[in-house]
Specification:
The chain has about 800 residues and is an alpha+beta fold. Among the domains are: about 200 residues, Nucleotide cyclase, GGDEF domain (Alpha-Beta Plaits), CATH 3.30.70.1230; about 35 residues; about 140 residues, Rossmann fold (3-Layer(aba) Sandwich), CATH 3.40.50; about 160 residues, Serine Threonine Protein Phosphatase 5, Tetratricopeptide repeat (Alpha Horseshoe), CATH 1.25.40. It has 34 helices and 16 strands. Strands 1, 2, 3, 4, 5, 6, 7 and 8 form an eight-stranded mixed beta sheet that branches. Strands 9, 10, 11, 12, 13 and 14 form a six-stranded mixed beta sheet that branches. Strand 13 and strand 14 form a beta hairpin. Helix 16 packs antiparallel against helix 17, helix 29 runs parallel beside helix 31 and helix 30 runs antiparallel to helix 31. The radius of gyration is 30 Å and the shape is flat. The relative contact order is 0.05.
Length: about 800
């Protein structure tokens, strides 16, 4: 594959074959060359190689002592290729190879020679599989072996080898592919060292094994049918989540900068942002938000694909060229369904008239799409956002910085955005939109704890007041006010009222619907929350954070098929996002009490990057406790940062996790010692912030672990009183769940079941899987009432 065929770094599922010459380093230089040349001829001569290459569905990467081949159509391709190679090598006894096969996610990357190479978990695991092999072996991962088992002709050649521990402690279940004509029937040395070679079974044992194998095959078939049906339903759910493509819909792609001065790119961003903002004010249009169009900047564009991805009928693209005080803007409108050009025009104006140019262009597009333009919308489009073009450039740069943030991430991006906005206000002290965005940034930083200080909230209030003095009736002001009310934990009902006003004049502003989803969720209006977040995703379909938030709402109402479908969409957008991968793998645990996917995902993440251990430690500890693997729990505890970790949004000290592990393994003295240390930390926080419900709740759990019954119940009940469901449906229900744990631990089962009944009937994170496997519920397990509650959450 030539350098011209380089692809964007997009996640793909590849079927990988790694081929390695055994003893290569011991060969003389000329021998090495001869061996590799002979191996290349053999590989290129296989039917599997030729067929994949002819179809343009093959990546080949030399590895020095062998090669990596990536196929894309079927797991049979690498298996067939390996079979052909193994048979051909029977005629070349002068050298031996070993092979490993795996299927998994890969990314195409360019190497130092600008040639296509491969990176990602798929290639890493394939290498680990091959590393377990000896000369002549064709080893397969459990994943690809299961895929091949669906093809009847491969089943006789698949031989289960059990597990092999590889780099970073990852354990791989392996199969060997062989018969009399190919492969190696001997057990690999690495697996012999772990368990020795099994004795040859007797005829009676073979009959028993055959009976077991038949029964197992029937069970596998039944499971395969079940999961096939289940994931078919998931696929349909995912399809249902895609909005229909409506006629009056458009995406405005970033305009290409044709200026000789590349610094004018920021000017071009401002032009694009202004046009997009103007069009978004038209209620009769559906306009895709900037977060979802920015990824198409400067890339080759397939209009039909973009239209399908963004779910729009029309695409607007163009160029900007600035030369001194003159600017030329060209634009063309395209029907994305058939790639037909509907309209094109260019504008040549003075830079000072650029906002009038953008207004003219936006109104022309509205006319081309035959959309209704209300008088107030026309007036809003014609209103110049600022007196300074340079100020708007800085504002656009702030918007671009914020496009890659979420409510929970992006401190540095927010700091940069604040600097751009302050610069914009210095150029134009009456820049209304800059003050609105300032309010939102300060409020979000306070909300997510990036700067949870009164000073930060005061800055948000100051910017909001300035915006109010400039344009108190605008939708942008009401959105900023709602963000301030929500971010400052001040008044959810008032925030909801402000958002209702904002959406009248900002019909295509996705952040209005995003925030409405959060506010409704806090107020327990789950149906409305989901509808708002679905609408935000519709307007901003490539926003992975919106998809994660939508999955969170689906999780609360225990709609696990939709949780999986939404997270699947998010994974396709951000395949390397650790948080999304962990959330996706956690779904089977909540849904079916199945810890295996999360176990495998955490192992894979830690194998890919051991430095992730600290950030994954809280999830790792929870999983290890669910699996009663206390050795793994202690390893995870060692990786946990000193400041502690999070459980469902509540931040616990590290010593709490230590106590939890020791309690679960029956070490009462060790648990008591750890809980005493945890109590000292939490008691200080509660003394400083007596109305901090989360800290009060955690203190109650710690005291329950210490056997301080009256203190624990008083603190848990106080936390519930501070955070009633009517005030905060998310943390309120979590406080009720933890109060049930407190009652269970201090020997008050009747009270525990009262709280547990509430926590399982209301939307919450509490799931069938958590109740089935988490040790915190062990004191209630022998009570029939607990079985009844668990059964009420069982998958239907």
């Amino acid at each position: 594959m030539s350098a011209e065929q380089k692809s964007e770094s997009v996640l793909e599922i590849g079927y990988l074959l790694i081929v390695d010459v055994v003893g290569y380093s011991k060969l003389l230089g000329n021998e090495q060359i001869e061996v590799i040349e002979q191996l290349n001829r053999i590989v290129r001569g296989t039917d599997a190689f030729r067929s994949a290459e002819a179809g343009g569905k093959l990546i080949r990467v030399p590895t020095g002592d062998g090669m990596a081949l990536v196929f894309f159509r079927s797991p049979e391709e690498p298996a067939g290729c390996a079979l052909e190679i193994s048979r051909a090598l029977r005629n070349h006894p002068q050298f031996h190879v070993r092979m490993g096969i795996h299927s998994g996610p890969i990314n195409r990357v360019a190497d130092v020679n600008d040639r296509i190479n491969v990176a990602g978990a798929g290639i890493n695991i394939a290498q680990r599989v091959m590393d377990c092999a000896d000369a002549g072996h064709i080893l397969l991962s459990d994943h690809v072996a299961n895929d091949l088992a669906h093809y009847g002709r491969w089943r006789p050649y698949l031989h289960d080898l059990g597990e092999c521990e590889v780099k970073h402690g990852l354990r791989l279940k392996l199969f060997s592919l062989y018969n009399d004509g190919f492969g190696n029937s001997a057990r690999p040395d690495k697996l012999k060292k772990r368990g020795g070679v099994a004795a040859r079974p007797s005829p009676l044992q073979r009959r028993v094994q055959l009976t077991i194998a038949v029964a197992a095959a029937l069970l596998v078939l039944a499971i395969a049918i079940y999961f096939s049906a289940r994931f078919s339903r998931l696929a349909r759910s995912s399809t249902e989540l895609l909005s229909p493509i409506v006629e009056k819909s458009i995406a405005v792609l970033p305009f290409d900068n044709l200026s000789d001065d590349k610094q004018s790119a920021h000017f071009g961003d401002g032009v694009h942002d202004a046009i997009l903002t103007d069009l978004a004010k038209v209620a009769d249009l559906k306009v895709i938000s900037r977060t979802s169009v920015l990824p198409y900047r400067g890339k080759g564009r397939n209009v039909r694909d973009i239209g399908e991805q963004l779910r729009v009928a029309h695409i607007l693209e163009g160029t900007v060229q600035r030369n001194g005080n003159r600017v030329r803007v060209s634009a063309q409108l395209i029907d994305a369904r058939n790639d037909r050009h509907l309209w094109a025009e260019y504008y040549d104006r003075d830079v000072a008239d650029v906002f009038a140019l953008e207004s003219d262009l936006a109104q022309t597009i509205v006319g081309q799409l035959k959309a209704k333009l209300a008088p107030e919308e026309k007036a809003a489009i014609e209103k110049s956002p600022t007196t300074s073009v340079s100020a708007y450039e800085l504002y656009a740069r702030a918007r671009t910085a914020l496009a890659s943030t979420s409510f929970t991430t992006g401190r540095q991006n927010r700091v940069e955005a604040l600097e751009f906005l302050q610069g914009a206000i210095q150029l134009d002290p009456s820049f209304f939109l800059a003050y609105c965005l300032l309010t939102r940034v300060h409020s979000e930083m306070y909300l997510v704890g990036l700067d949870h200080t009164p000073e930060r909230l005061a800055r948000a209030e100051e910017a909001l007041h300035k915006a109010q003095t400039l344009r108190p009736d605008s939708g942008e002001y009401h959105l900023a006010y709602a963000t301030y009310l929500y971010g400052g934990f001040l008044d959810y009902e008032r925030a909801s009222h402000e958002l209702a006003i904002a959406r009248r004049s900002l019909p295509n502003e996705s952040s209005v619907f995003e925030l409405a989803g959060y506010v409704n969720r806090r107020q327990g209006r789950w149906k409305e929350s989901i509808q708002d977040l679905e609408h935000a995703v519709d307007l901003d379909p490539l926003n992975s954070d919106y998809l994660q938030q939508l999955s969170l709402s689906y999780t609360k109402v225990r709609d696990y098929p939709r949780v999986a479908a939404v997270l699947d969409r998010a994974l396709r957008l951000v395949p390397n996002d650790v948080g999304v991968r962990v959330k996706w793998a956690s779904v089977p645990l909540d849904w079916h009490a199945d810890t295996k996917p999360l176990h495998q995902t955490l192992q894979m993440l830690l194998a890919e990057n051991p430095a992730l251990a600290s950030s994954l430690a809280d999830d790792w500890i929870d999983l290890a406790l669910c699996e009663r693997d206390f050795t793994a729990a202690e390893k995870a505890l060692a990786a946990l940062p000193q400041e502690g970790g999070s459980i469902e949004g509540f931040v616990f000290p590290k010593s709490w996790f230590q106590g939890l592990i020791r309690r679960a393994r029956g070490d009462a003295a060790g648990a008591n010692e750890a809980f005493i240390a945890a109590r000292a930390e939490m008691e200080k926080i509660v003394q400083e912030q007596p109305n901090y419900a989360q800290a009060m709740c955690i203190l109650g759990l710690i005291d329950a672990g210490l056997g301080r019954k009256e203190d624990a119940m008083r603190e848990g009940e106080r936390a519930v009183a501070l955070l009633p469901l009517q005030k905060d449906a998310i943390n309120g229900i979590l406080s009720i769940e933890y109060l049930a744990v407190i009652y269970a631990w201090v020997g008050e089962p009747d009270r525990a079941f009262q709280q547990l009944a509430v926590a399982t009937k209301e939307p919450s994170d509490l799931s069938f899987g958590q109740l089935k496997v988490r040790p915190v519920w062990d004191p209630l397990r022998d009570d029939p009432r607990f079985d009844k509650i668990v059964a009420s959450l069982a998958p239907k």
